[in-house]
Design a protein that fits this description.
By secondary structure, this protein is an all-alpha fold. It contains six helices and no strands. Helix 1 (23-49) packs antiparallel against helix 5 and helix 4 (92-122) packs antiparallel against helix 5.
């Protein structure tokens, strides 16, 4: 019996009680969350030491692009979550399609972020222009790397779903866990850089 069709232990509600994905991906996700949490804490400390300077620099960010990027990534998470549901029910064609849509949202996010960076640099808000923009490029740059890596992961997941003899739900779920972490990190970054006053 393959993993895609194998019954899993169910709780009293009849729902699966297993931890989605592979244990190793959870170790990596928790490690990433700790590292980003440290970045966020350092940002907050520096912001508290120069609140007016940070606020003045923050006003140069385009809130509309930040909101659009947030909607794009949350939509991508929805596609990826629906892909996992489709794969669990054996609808692999739909799962592949939804995985590609999640990855396409990631590509759109990268395009929007590239446009935003180019606009800020053209306005003179470069990496060393202020402490705020140093944090801005560092946080969004490291996150952008995670988005690009997540798109690579989505490619592996789609390949896994297209191969009947290699379909492993743990791989599909692990890809989704990583992608949701990337989206969660963006929500925090968006709140810190664009919204918090």
């Amino acid at each position: 019996m393959t993993e895609t069709t194998q019954a899993r232990p169910a709780g009293r509600t009849g729902r699966s009680t297993h931890l989605p994905g592979d244990g190793a991906v959870w170790v990596m996700v928790l490690g990433d969350l700790i590292i980003f949490g440290s970045y966020f804490l350092i940002f907050m400390v520096h912001r508290s030491m120069a609140p007016q300077e940070f606020l003045a620099a923050q006003r140069h960010l385009n809130l509309n692009i930040g909101v659009l990027n947030t909607v794009v990534l949350l939509t991508s998470s929805w596609f990826v979550a629906r892909s996992v549901v489709a794969a669990r029910t054996g609808d692999f064609a739909t799962a592949v399609r939804l995985t590609y849509l999640g990855g396409a949202c990631g590509a759109l996010f990268i395009g929007l972020k590239g446009y935003e960076w180019a606009t800020k640099i053209a306005q003179g808000h470069t990496l060393g222009a202020s402490e705020f923009f140093t944090f801005y490029y560092m946080l969004t740059g490291v996150h952008l790397f995670h988005v690009a890596l997540g798109m690579l992961v989505m490619g592996f997941v789609a390949r896994e779903l297209r191969r009947p003899h290699r379909r492993r739900m743990s791989m599909v779920e692990s890809g989704a866990v990583y992608w949701h972490m990337v989206d969660l990190l963006w929500v925090v970054i968006f709140g810190l850089l664009y919204v918090m006053r």
